[in-house]
Amino acid sequence: MSMNTNNQNLSDEDQIVAEINMTPLIDIMLVLLIIFMVTSTAALESGLDIELPKTQVTNEKKQDEIMIITLSRDGKVAIQGKEVKPEELKEKVQSTLEELKTKSVILEGDTQAFLGKAIEIMDIAKASGAENFSIAAEEDPSKRTK
To answer: Which of 109, 83, 105 is closest to 94 using CA atoms?
Structure first.
């Protein structure tokens, strides 16, 4: 009995399939894409890199209909995560308040931000129709009272 090494004598079912199965590779790539999209969305929440002041008690409510103004330590201002030029600030505040149909503003300011700039932003927002103001802060676990 001799061993046949010639593929021509094998039937179609007996031939070796030399293909790479792409399905697992595609599955892994889609999972990585989803993970990347979720983490990049969380990283872009405020738009500017700021360090919020620490406090003992914070209010965890964050409503979508509240306008968020962010002030960085170098004086850059962002509204709803998008940086705004100083000369366009008043117009952008007015249009965003109208778009969101709100009169509430949260000011997220870096701990090193200039207080005068924060007051100026609050004045612009008040002149644009805002009535309720809040200042964002992070809860400091070391200052938590028991």
So the answer is: 105
